[in-house]
Fold this protein.
Amino acid sequence: MTSAHRENPMIPISSVVLPPEVPDRIARVLSSGQLAQGQEVAELEALAATMAGSQHAVAVSNGTVSLQLALQALQLGPGGEVLTSSFTFAGTINAILNAGLRVRFVDIDDRFGMDADHLESQIGPDTVAILPVHLYGAACDMTRICSIAERHGLAVVEDAAQAHGAEWHGQRVGSFGLGSFSLYATKNVTSGEGGIVTADDAQLANRLRLLRNQGMSGRYQFETVGTNARMTDVQAAIAIPQMTRLDEITDARQSNAALLDDGLRDVADIECPRVNPNARHVFHQYTVRVRADSQVTRDHLSESLARQNIATGIYYPRAAYDYEIYRSHPRVTIEAQPGAERAAREVLSLPVHPQLQPRDIERIVDAISATVTGT
Ligand SMILES: *Cc1c(COP(=O)(O)O)cnc(C)c1O
């Protein structure tokens, strides 16, 4: 190993360190003989409902399926149009299309959330639901989104895949409408693969449980056409000890974000994340903008950091609709979304995960400053 490697160990963009009781919990599941639909799943659901400030939580196999089932549970009817963010992961769009619905996009504001002004102008006669995405762990403006939804009689499904424990004016995301969380390997709480749907309405929660389990109420009592979207108890056993420590996990992400803010605030050409004072940002990602008119390009900065063993991420390199599969899809409406297209050129996510040490953050800040000033 060279001295450069010793001094500059790799700083990954995400790092999974599970709480120490996870192996024992998994062992208990394995020896219990109940690997699915057991105690652990029930316990995780109770914790997840509290996490989202909702009455009910339904654990499912992943966060894409959780979005799809949330839309299906609402029985919005075929051909209905869902308005969603133009700057999100493909899972958001795939869930809407796989639920048989149509997609129209809403541009983002300067905090990467759904732009409420643009939202209102996108509503048309076929609009049935609004699907905001709390990207990077930042809550969208749910006051305005919910009031627009109410005025137009539209359902709200929140894509909170990246926003476990995030708040808007003290209210947890996932409790404004139906909430959808992902427990994928890199998310703030993980079970490897997994998802959670949250709901306040008992009937909707019941329909979600039916949809998850082949539409079955009692043994071979089929009430609706469902699917298999169940979570295993091993998955739940992995997630529970993180869910009980979510405040700790979030605190660590927030203090890392504060250190990055302090170090980068005065660095030319770098725009730190703007956080709404009424929001609790849980920093799934710490995403800066490298302005397109800067001395240093976003891609140059990312390559320079990679050479110094600092991983970064570009979430996402294109606007959500900017792929041939969606551009040519009969149920996707394509319109230019300048905010999303600019974000795709400018965003760079820096490591912010709880395992970072202050010296790692110093290295990140120093490397960025040096690259930007050309020293
Ligand atoms: C991760 C993610 C999803 C999909 O979740 P999976 O568990 O990977 O299926 C959906 N939307 C957003 C914004 C995500 O980040």
About this structure: The pocket of pyridoxal-5'-phosphate is lined by residues 62-64, 88-89, 91-92, 133, 159, 161-162, 182, 184, 195 (CB under 6 Å).
